[in-house]
User: What shape does this take?
Amino acid sequence: MTDSAQKLYSRLESLKRNISFYANRKSFKYGLPFLLFVVGGSFGLREWTQIRYQFSQVKGVSREEAEKMGLHKTKEVTLEKAYEEIQKIDIDNWENKRGPRPWEMQDEKKK
Assistant: This one.
């Protein structure tokens, strides 16, 4: 090996020893990930909360504009109409249907 390659190799070995020395310390194992989580979390929360302010100026669409776009509200739901629909349902004649259990679904797959 040449002299420059030998120096580079010794520096890499020294760096490897330093990393392995610090990797076994508790402050490096637990402190560094904690600090990265706190600092990274603050940047993430900043981006997340910015969405609220970014879209706070967005106004809703009026009924006329919605109808121009083709969004028509065809059925008006009132409490009385919903009550009439519920009264039409036959609640006296019903059958309890049991869903398959996870272990039963595995048995069916094997068959």
About this structure: The chain has five helices and no strands. The radius of gyration is 33 Å. The first helix runs from residue 3 to 23.
